[in-house]
Specification:
11-stranded mixed β-sheet, about 30% strand, TIM Barrel, alpha/beta, Chondroitinase Ac, Chain A, domain 3, about 20% helix
Length: about 475
């Protein structure tokens, strides 16, 4: 009897022991079954690749453990289950231009994983391709970096989505002006008049407008008038958490009291070291404003820096775009900057990698502007033309019809005379001032807006803001 009981126990215990050995480390059969098709990533990190060239690089895990990661390239026609839902949820403004790259993992995938994808063979669409991640409910734009030579697009994942795909965007049509003008193609009107005063309060009133039906009026709040910039007030406000909170509440209160559709911030002279504080202020203002109110933020004129980057001073485009609805970037008045591979296409390649292009609009002054080095300001056209000199003719008698007369510019400084850009029709002249500094004046000319409007359309941006449409540099 005892031998029989022992035999029964052996038949039960031995298989159990075998199962225990199989399911415990180092064999871990259960984990292996669940992780079929996954690649083991050790504590040092590692890379998972797909046959079509996609790669997910996982940073060090920060411990002694390991995780399992799987990266699959799924064509749209093969999408099933959750991926089919993702395809069905693609917004109308986007078109799928790559396979869906599904990311699956066992264990916690750390933030900072780098995803590298091949760009689709659509050379004409290079400037309009974006990267989007599927979180199970929505497709969300992802900051990215394209490498045209390698034909790749890369992003760093702070919160890894379920799937990532390259999307082609569609053109948008949207133009804003800061003065009352022809409104047949306009979507918004941004009247000036609100000012951040020396005490950090909001003073003034927006200029009267003749807004038509369906035209949103979004006042602009500035810390400057003409050439006078009150940088001390905005820097003092940003320097303290209390000041930022108080100003955010004041702006929100004004917007609600006046039933404004939004507010546009155009603060100049902010100290670059206050960039984090400005981002915090914009983020707090967004939380304070109603969800239906549009928040627009203007950057300083971007300055090129090394490695293809651009400096926008205290406005961190990528960070501010997380809170603001619109990022307004000043456009160059120089028509030569709009040539292929010119400064403006390079700027927009950089900008659309840091903010959703549907948030970006170019700001273009339709009046005369003067550029000294990289500083641009609005100028009165008559005053600008006076820099060329006065036209005179040495004639002391009656001139007969058909007779030639020699004219000259009297009292002019060293100047090129008025030039016409053949490609755009823009007119300009350059001169040297008394300090031998080079000035370039771009004269008021409807043809001058064409390059910026065309470039915004080519990049599928949100639109173009036409400033000073009435000739007033402050409205």
């Amino acid at each position: 009897m005892k031998n029989k009981l022992f035999s029964v126990a052996a038949y039960i215990l031995i298989p159990l022991l075998i199962l225990v050995v199989l399911f415990l480390p180092p064999i871990s059969l259960f984990d292996r079954l669940l992780s079929s098709g996954y690649q083991t990533i050790s504590a040092e990190g590692g890379t998972v690749q797909t046959p079509d060239g996609a790669a997910l690089t996982v940073p060090p895990l920060g411990g002694s453990g390991q995780i399992w990661v799987r990266l699959d390239s799924v064509p749209e026609t093969d999408a099933a289950g959750p991926l089919a839902d993702a395809v069905a949820a693609i917004p109308p403004a986007l078109t799928l231009s790559s396979p869906l790259y599904q990311i699956q993992h066992r264990g916690n995938l750390p933030a900072g994983a780098a995803l590298l994808l091949p760009l689709p063979a659509e050379p004409d669409a290079y400037h309009t391709l974006d990267l989007y991640g599927w979180d199970g409910m929505h497709w969300r734009w992802l900051a990215n970096q394209k490498n045209n030579a390698a034909q790749t697009i890369q992003t760093t994942l702070s919160n890894p989505p379920q799937a990532v795909a390259v999307m082609n965007t569609r053109p948008l049509r949207n133009v804003q002006v800061s003065d009352s003008a022809e409104q047949t193609i306009l979507a918004e009107l941004h009247p000036a008049g609100l000012v951040l005063d020396a005490a950090g309060k909001i003073s003034g009133q927006p200029a009267p407008t003749a807004a038509g039906d369906g035209l949103a009026v979004i006042p602009t709040l500035r810390n400057w008038r003409g050439d006078s910039v009150n940088d001390a007030a905005v820097n003092a406000m940003l320097a303290s958490a209390e000041g930022r909170s108080e100003h955010a509440r004041a702006v929100a209160a004004w917007v609600q009291a006046n039933s404004a559709a939004g507010i546009a911030l155009d603060y100049r002279g902010i100290a670059p070291n206050l960039q984090p504080e400005f981002t915090e202020f914009v983020t707090e203002l967004r939380r304070t404003l109603p969800d239906t109110v549009q928040l627009s933020v203007r950057t300083p004129a971007p300055r090129p820096i090394s490695a293809g980057g651009w400096d926008t001073g205290a406005v961190d485009v990528q960070a501010v775009a997380q809170a603001a609805d619109v990022i307004e970037i000043p456009a160059s008045p120089n028509p030569h900057d709009y040539a292929a591979n010119g400064a403006m296409p390079q700027l927009l390649d950089w900008a659309v990698s840091r903010a959703n292009r549907a948030q970006i609009q170019l700001a273009l002054n339709t009046g005369s502007t003067e550029q000294v080095e990289q500083s641009v300001r609005a100028v009165d056209t008559a005053d600008a033309l006076a820099k060329i000199g006065t036209v005179t003719a040495d004639v002391s008698r009656v001139v007969l019809p058909g007779e030639e007369i020699d004219f000259r510019l009297a009292g002019s400084q060293a100047t090129t005379g008025v030039q016409v850009d053949d490609a755009s029709g823009a007119t300009w002249f350059a001169y040297l001032d008394d300090n031998n500094r080079h000035h370039t004046v771009y004269l008021e000319n409807p043809a001058g807006v064409v390059p910026a409007v065309q470039l915004a359309a080519d990049y599928h941006l949100r639109g173009v803001a036409l400033e000073s449409a009435g000739g007033n540099a402050d409205t």
